[in-house]
TrEMBL record:
InterPro entries tied to this protein: AP_beta, ARM-like, ARM-type_fold, Cnd1_C
One Pfam family in the UniProt entry: Cnd1
Highest classification ranks of the organism: Eukaryota, Metazoa, Ecdysozoa, Arthropoda, Hexapoda
Keywords annotated in UniProt: Membrane, Protein transport, Transport
Descriptive protein name: Condensin complex subunit 1 C-terminal domain-containing protein
Keyword Transferase among record annotations: no
Species in which this protein is naturally found: Cuerna arida
Transmembrane helix listed as a keyword: no
Subcellular location: Endomembrane system
GO CC annotation: endomembrane system
Highest rank taxon of the organism: Eukaryota
Location of the Condensin complex subunit 1 C-terminal domain: 18-183
Location (main, coarse): membrane
Amino acid sequence: AILAVNTFVKDCEDANPLIRALAVRTMGCIRVEKITEYLCEPLRKCLKDEDPYVRKTAAVCVAKLYDISSGLVEDQGFLEQLKELLCDSNPMVVANAVAALSEINETNATGYPLVDLTAGTVNKLLTALNECTEWGQVFILDSLAHYSPKDEREIQSICERITPRLAHANAAVVLSAIKVLLKFMEFLPNGNEFSAQLSKKLAPP
């Protein structure tokens, strides 16, 4: 197994980004705790790779590694690197980072969310929402449902950017959008005009 890992470590330095991504993905699938330490350095490099395909693949690998050795992931600072990817310039990298953090959160023993969403991070997620796949949109919307907006103006701004998802062809995206909108409507006072407008949009045709 160690000989195989040495080959993958070399492939992580390959000039071809597809080879680098495939190498880190394959290493993430080797579920042998004794060799996880060999993963750390190549994974760290791939999380900062110049190619977004490599970065998005590495993000998912962190979640796989956490499942094998959560302590190692925390000690090596991979969770912090994942959080940094939430502000990546590529929407698919952002979506995969959200997905990885969500997966880790489900098995996190503390029960506390790993990411304390800020207004800046939420804005990045909303920007990525317009450009990523349906799968990525669901993960981003589900993470936004845990955000507590600071005032009515922010609620309106976020809801207006999410509302177009109600017309999406994918039912999972629509349901995730509804979940966020209903959550944010709870922050609005009774009889609020914007809340009434949202209720009409959520009502069946």
